[in-house]
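Lab notes, practical 5.
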Amino acid sequence: PERLLSLDWRENDFLRFWMGRSSPLVAVGREIIEQKDFLGRRLDQPDDWIRTVGVHFLTIAAQNLITRDPSEEEGKFKRFGAEIFGLRTFPRGDWRRLEDMENEYAQREFKKPFDDLNREQKDQIQEKYPEYKALSDDAREKMTWESGEDFEQWTLASEQMANSEYHAIGEQMARSLFAGMIDYRTYLGWCLMLAEVLERMALSCSRLSLALVWGLAPALVQVLVRVLVLSVQPRPFPLPQLGL
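Output from the prediction step:
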């Protein structure tokens, strides 16, 4: 109900419905005034303006020749040739490319599908292949921005916060280990347990509960680590020889 009272047509579903059915001339005029396209992306570069005008006034086949992202460059002339004769093409989105990249790297490193990897193995792929992490972050941010939903933006922020908190707490546990407050076996056991708990949460929860879990995960991990550290009496413990 509150959104129906908003004068921002991107928040007001009623106004958004009518804006989506306005004439091309009205749509272009609105985007020139706002300096944003229909999805809310800023129009800063000349090619952005060329594309947004082309979306409203060119045919579907001709629109494929005006690309916005580097990922759209591949095969644009093939798409034009197919659609000029009445066929319809569908873009290979970032999520599909990301899925193919995930499985390719998972098979290369661990000889199994990406979905079968644990959290540590997935982190290893992110660290070893920076192009995978860059594509993953770009796809997620693009989805969040284009959806225009506060929930999606909150989900992304929660996941990023949980990720940074998780690694920060891992460093805290490592410092406790080197300070002699916990032994090596306890350190490894808790690290594996926390990683498994978060992995099971992510796999078993729905989209809504997943966002809540990631939002609560940092606090949960902090509590568990603090209980662990406080429950162990400080005592010197020799580190095992790892042969490094």
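Observations recorded by the TA: The longest helix spans residues 150-178. The CA atoms of residues 24 and 57 lie 7 Å apart.
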